[in-house]
Amino acid sequence: MKQYAKDYTVGELMCVTLAKEIEDGDVVVLGSFTPLAYASYILAKITHAPNSCLLAYAAVDFRPFQLSFIRAESSATRGSALMWTMLEDLNSVHLKGRGDVEAISSIQADQYGNINLSVVGEYDRPKLRGPGGAGAPEVIKMHRKMIGYFPGHSKMTFVPKVDVITGTRYLIGAQERIKSGYRPGPIRYITNLCVMTKEERDKPFRIDFLHPGVKAEDVVSNTGFPLEVPSSIPETEKPTEEQVRLLREEVDPYGTLNFDFKPGKERLGYLKEMLNKELQAIGYA
Amino acid sequence: MKQYAKDYTVGELMCVTLAKEIEDGDVVVLGSFTPLAYASYILAKITHAPNSCLLAYAAVDFRPFQLSFIRAESSATRGSALMWTMLEDLNSVHLKGRGDVEAISSIQADQYGNINLSVVGEYDRPKLRGPGGAGAPEVIKMHRKMIGYFPGHSKMTFVPKVDVITGTRYLIGAQERIKSGYRPGPIRYITNLCVMTKEERDKPFRIDFLHPGVKAEDVVSNTGFPLEVPSSIPETEKPTEEQVRLLREEVDPYGTLNFDFKPGKERLGYLKEMLNKELQAIGYA
Amino acid sequence: MPIENKVGKLSDITKIIKDGDKVAIGGSWLGGHPMAIIREIIRSKIKDLTAITVVGSIDIDLLIGAGCLKRLMFSFVSMEAFGLAPNFRRAIEKEGLPYDEITGLAVIIGLEAGGRNVPFLPYRGPFGSDLVKYRPEFYKNIKCPFTGEELIAAAAIVPDVAIIHAVRADKTGNIQMEGTTGTDIEMMRAAKKRIVSVEEVVPSEEIWKHPEKTKVPKFQVDMVIEAPLGAHPTSCAPHYVFDAWHIMKYMEYAASAETFKKYVQDYVMKPEWEYLEAIGGMRQASILRRLAREVKFL
Amino acid sequence: MPIENKVGKLSDITKIIKDGDKVAIGGSWLGGHPMAIIREIIRSKIKDLTAITVVGSIDIDLLIGAGCLKRLMFSFVSMEAFGLAPNFRRAIEKEGLPYDEITGLAVIIGLEAGGRNVPFLPYRGPFGSDLVKYRPEFYKNIKCPFTGEELIAAAAIVPDVAIIHAVRADKTGNIQMEGTTGTDIEMMRAAKKRIVSVEEVVPSEEIWKHPEKTKVPKFQVDMVIEAPLGAHPTSCAPHYVFDAWHIMKYMEYAASAETFKKYVQDYVMKPEWEYLEAIGGMRQASILRRLAREVKFL
What we know:
CATH topology of the largest domain in chain A: Glutaconate Coenzyme A-transferase
Number of helices of chain A: 9
Largest sheet of chain C: 10 strands, mixed
Number of strands of chain C: 15
Oligomer: heterotetramer
Strand content of chain A: 15-25%
C-alpha cells in the first residue's frame, strides 16, 4: 500500500504531479535548464517510465542522473546514447510531432492556449522585455500534449488574453489535431494550486485536481479567466514517502527543484548554498 | 626538367589530364566507384593539390590511399576526417554549389551540356535501360566545373541530342551562373581522344587538346555534333615518368584505372586477375 | 516496467512488412544494403512491394528477379564495375515493370520532407531534366514568397517501412553506424515502421561508450535483428568489403531469367545460416573482413 | 604546396569581422558560446554588428552592454536561473535597441535555408503567433503545390560571419565537438565566413582517430584560434561546466549601466590570459572541469 508523505514541499508535489504526465515510452524534451522539469522526468524514468526517451541539450536517450544546479548538461552529455544538433532534433522530433511532453512555463498564459514569453505591455514599448520563447511557440502545437507548469498561480500570469501571443497551441481538439497531422492531447497546466486542463477550443480550462488544502475558490480568484469548476474536484495525489525519498536522496539532493519557489530575496542565498554543496562534493570548498 | 613517360596507357593519360582539373583547395566529390576518377584525385592530392578536400561515400577529407578494386570504401572510411550522411553532404556541398569537381560519365552526351544515363531509345520503350543518374543530373549544374570523362569517344556517345535528358548543366555561361548564385566554370570533357570544352550556351564545344597521335579529324568524325576546331590545337601534355611511377607503384598498383578500357570480353579476366592479386596481398590466395 | 526488447528474428519481418507496402531500402551502391532482410522478404514470399532506393544495386536486382516488386522508385540501380543490373534491365526493357525514376537529390530531399512532416521542400532543382517532365507527381515549380525566385518543389516521400543494415544496436533500438550511411538515417525518419539488421546486438553500456557513433535513436526503430554479415554480398564499411567473387557468380546466374531462378534456389531459399555457408562461410567472412582492415595510406 | 594553416590569434578576428557585419553566435543557453571571441570583439571595438542567436545568454548581454550591436535577431536571451539578461532588458526597455524576435524553429530553419542555398524553407510553422504578424520579412504563407496545404515559409538567414567555440581542431580547420552543438553546425553552413575558437589545436592524426567527432569540415572554416577555456563563463560540455560563481558576479556588475562599465574594464579590456587569471586562474578551471567529470547516474 502506498505510504503518502506527510512532509513535502509544493515543489515536490508539483514535481511528482508532472512526473505522472510521462507515460512509459514517451519522448520527453527538455529545453532550458528548468530544475523542476528535470527532476520530474528523471523521477519518472527511474520509477514508472524506464522506457521513456529523455532529450536535453544535444543528448538523446540519456541515462537518468543525479541532478545538480551546475552539472545537468555534462551529466546528460556523458550519459547520452546519441548526440545531435538542434536541426537533427527538429527533423526527428519536433517537426514530426513525435514529442510527447515538453513542460514549458510562461510569463503570461490565457484561456485560449496562448503563451507570452515576449513582453508585458505593448510590443514596441515593453514594460518588461521577457526572454523570448525559443522553440516553445512552435513545439506547443507539435508535441502530443502541451504541459505547462507555473510556480505562482495568479492573475498576473493567468490573464484573459496575453499581451503578446509568442506562441499558441493552435490545434486544440482531438479532431482538428488529427486532421492536421498531429497526435491529440490536452493542454494541461500544473500550478502551485491545482491541475487544470483544456481539451477543446470552445471549452474553458477545467479544474481537475486541487492540491491539498486548496479550495476551488482560491483557484478561481487567482485566475484571470473563467474556469470550469466541477461540482466535485478530487485532491491531487500527494507524493508518496518513497517519491520524496527518491527526490531528496537520489534525484535532487541539492534541492534544485525548490529554487523556483524561493522568494526573490532568498534566491541568491539559496543558490550560493547549493553551489557551496557542489564544491564540497568535489572537495574544493 | 620534366621527363615525359614513353610508356603509358590511354587510361593513364586521361587520369593525369583529369588530375590537372583539381586545383589546390578544391572540394572534390566522388559518387559511384569510378577507378579512373579516384586515381586522378588521389594523384592530385599527393602531388599538386594537398589541400584539396576529397569526399567519397560518407567520408569527408579522407587521406589519400592506395587504390584497389575492392577496398576504396573502407580505405576512405578509415582515413576520413569526418563522416556524414548524403543529406549532410547536400546541405554542405551540393545545394550550396560548394563542390568544385565531380567527374561524371554518361551513356550519351550532347552539344547542349545534357547527359543521358536513363534510356537509349524512347523513354517508355527503352532499347537499353541505363542505371539512372543518381545525383549527377543535379550536381552538374551546382558544382563549379562540369567535368566528364569518356573512355570511348564515339558518335554513339556524343550525339546531337540525347534521347533523354537525365540532367543538364542548365546554367552555362559565367554571367548566367553568377546571376543564379553559382560559381562560373566550364563544361569540360576528357575523352580517349582529346580534351574539349564548352563555356557559353551559344557556342559549340571547342577542341582544346589532342592526345598524342590523334588528329582533329579523328575527333570530328567521332563526334555527332559540330565542334569548334581551332587552327592550331596543342597536344595534351603527356604523363611524366614520375606520374606514371606514382600511379603504378603507389596510387594504383592493381591497375584498376585501366579496367574501363578493356574490351568487353577481356574485362572479366582482368577483374579476376586484379582480385587474385588482392587475395595474394593479404595472404589468402 | 521491464526495459523493452525490440530484438526479433528474421522471420518476424512479416509482422511489419506486408504485401503491397512501400519499402525504403537502405545502403548505397555496393555497400550496406540490408541483404539478409531482402533475402527474408523473398523467403517469406512478400509480394507487390514498391521499393524505394536512392542508389541501389544487388538489393533491387534481387527483389526484382524474385518477383517481389510491383513498382520501383529509384535514382540509380547498377552493379557498378560488374555491369548493369540484369534483372532490373530485363524487367524494364522486356516486362514493363512500372517505375519512377527520380533524380538523386529529389529522392533524398523527398525523404527529408517525409521525415519532417512537410508535403514538399524546395531547392534549386533539376530544371531542364526530362525526368521532371515525366514525373510531375514528384516535381512542381514553386515561387519563393520572399524573393520571387522560381524553385523546384520535391514531393515528400513517406515509406510504409524502412529497412537498413547497421553495425550494432542495443535491444531498445539505438543504432550505431561506423561507415557509409547513405540515406539510411533519412529513410528511418521518414518511414512509418522501421527494421534494422545489425552485425551485433550489444548491451546498452556499449552504446553509451560512444554516443557519437549512434545514428538512429530508439524511438525511430521498431525491430532489431542480429544478422552477422547481414549486408553480404554488399559491404559493411569499414568492417567488411563487398564480396566481388560472389557478385561475379551472381552476374553469371542473373544472365538469364532461367538461371536466375536457380540462384534463388541455391542461395536464397534456405535458412540464412546456410546462405552464409554457401557463400564460403568463415573463410570468406575472414577474407572480406581482412580486406576491409588492410588499407594503405599514401 | 604546403598544407594550409588556418590558425590565427585572437587579434586576427578583425581580418574577418568588420563593423556592420551580421554575426551568428554559436552556443546555446549557458553553454558553448564563443566568449573569448566575444571579448575580443569588444576589445577590438568592432561596432554596429547585428547579432544572430537562437538561444543566447551572457554572449548577447555582454555585446549589448559593451555597445557593439546595432540590431539583434534572437528567439531567446536569458541568464536562465540567474534571471533575465540585464543589458538586454535595459537596451530594449529603455534605449530602444532594434530587434527581430523570431521563433526558435524559424531561426534554425532560416539558417538551414541559408546553408543550402534556398531563399526559404516551408514548415508547419507558428500559425497564430504574433511574432509572425510583427515580422513579415521572416514569415510568409505558402501553399504546397502538391497538396494545397497552407504552410509557413521561413526566410533564409545568411550571416556574414559565424563564430563558434569547439573542443578541438587541426590547423586545416576540421572541427570536433563532443557536447552540445546547438545550431553551431547550421551557422557554419550558412555563414559567408567562419571563425572557430577551440580548446586545443591538434595534429590531424588526432582528428583521424575519431572522425565521428568531427562536426564541421575544413572547407567551412576560415580561421581557427586556440583559446583554452574560451567558452568561459559558459560551459564546454562535457569538459567544463558554466561558471556559476562568475555569472553571479556578472549579474551584480550588470545590475546598472554604470557598474557594468566597470565589468568591462575589470574583465574584458585586458589580454585574454589576464581575464583567465582574473576569473580564478588554474584553480577555477580545475573546479569547472572536475564538476563536469563528476556526474552520477541513477
